[in-house]
């Protein structure tokens, strides 16, 4: 009779195929859930998170666990503290904006390169938005179109409204990667659209053309036609690039 225990029934404590299972801390699970919301685009760069108490209530955990989770995410550089209290999703915009701003300041021709890069990204985003936009997304886009068409709206809001529309299309794409990419260069895009709306094509008839182009993009997204949305965005940004090229020839 074999008195030696069968190793299949009694594995050695040093067997590398077996690892001790440890219980995960609640704070780790809270951090993982917040990270999931960031990675899916439910929380976007710059967005403020609910307070500790509200998060704790929603998730059914203690505020201590929420606080530990937030500290963990801060250490990873994913969120940051807001002046006056609270936290927000972080982006690396500050780190990128300085060199980009300097490039644009020293050579306006770099704006043309950025416009070409935007054309590639935003055509994809419009196509994606036509596939994934929700009723809430469409309501946001419609409200922006109404504001942009308002003849009594102050001229100073032209560029700001333009920025908001393009970022609303980004949100409608429901691509966390694209939303984060665009958020990183948001300040640069804002400065670029200031140049567009107040210098590059600043005439009243240009405003009418831009609004018509925006409306065509939104209608294509509403119709759930990805190719039409992509084509409408392509026409819009090609029109912008045509103005750059005309300005170059004049110079």
> How helical, in percent, are the residues?
55-70%
Largest sheet: 2 strands, antiparallel
CATH topology tier name of the largest domain: Four Helix Bundle (Hemerythrin (Met), subunit A)
Total beta strand runs: 2
Return the string of H and E elements: HHHEEHHHHHHHH
- The percent range for strand residues is under 5%
Radius of gyration: 25 Å
Q: Calculate the terminal CA-CA distance, rounded to whole Å.
A: 99 Å
Describe this entry's structure for a reader:
With 251 residues, this protein is an all-alpha fold. The protein has two domains: 64 residues, Arc Repressor Mutant, subunit A, CATH 1.10.10.10; 158 residues, Four Helix Bundle (Hemerythrin (Met), subunit A), CATH 1.20.120. The chain is built from eleven helices and two strands. The protein has a two-stranded antiparallel ribbon with strand order 1-2. It is elongated and about 65 Å long.
Question: What does this entry show, briefly?
Answer:
This protein is 69% helix and 2% strand. The chain contains 11 helices and 2 strands; from the N terminus they run αααββαααααααα. A two-stranded antiparallel ribbon has the order 1-2.
Give me some keywords for this one.
disordered N terminus, Arc Repressor Mutant, subunit A, 251 residues, mainly alpha, 2 domains, 2% strand, 2 strands, two-stranded antiparallel sheet, Four Helix Bundle (Hemerythrin (Met), subunit A), elongated, single chain, 11 helices, 69% helix
């Amino acid at each position: 009779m074999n008195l030696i225990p069968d190793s299949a029934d009694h594995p050695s404590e040093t067997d590398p195929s077996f690892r001790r299972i440890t219980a995960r801390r609640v704070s780790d699970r809270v951090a993982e859930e917040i990270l999931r919301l960031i990675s899916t685009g439910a929380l976007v760069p710059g967005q403020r998170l609910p307070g500790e108490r509200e998060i704790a209530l929603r998730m059914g955990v203690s505020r201590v666990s929420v606080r530990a989770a937030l500290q963990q995410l801060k250490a990873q550089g994913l969120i940051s503290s807001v002046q006056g209290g609270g936290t927000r999703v972080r982006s690396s915009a500050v780190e990128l904006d300085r060199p980009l701003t300097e490039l644009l300041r020293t050579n306006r021709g770099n704006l043309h390169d950025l416009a070409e890069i935007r054309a590639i990204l935003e055509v994809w985003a419009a196509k994606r938005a036509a596939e994934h936009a929700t009723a809430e997304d469409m309501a946001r886009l419609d409200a922006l179109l109404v504001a942009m068409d308002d003849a009594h709206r102050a001229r100073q809001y032209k560029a700001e409204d333009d920025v908001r529309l393009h970022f609303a299309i980004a949100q409608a794409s429901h691509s966390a990667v694209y939303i984060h990419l665009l958020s990183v260069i948001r300040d640069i895009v804002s400065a670029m659209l200031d140049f567009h709306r107040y210098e590059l094509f600043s005439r009243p008839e240009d405003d009418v053309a831009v609004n018509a182009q925006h409306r065509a993009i939104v209608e294509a997204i509403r119709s759930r036609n990805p190719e039409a949305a992509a084509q409408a965005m392509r026409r819009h940004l090609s029109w912008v690039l045509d103005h750059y090229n005309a300005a170059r020839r004049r110079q």
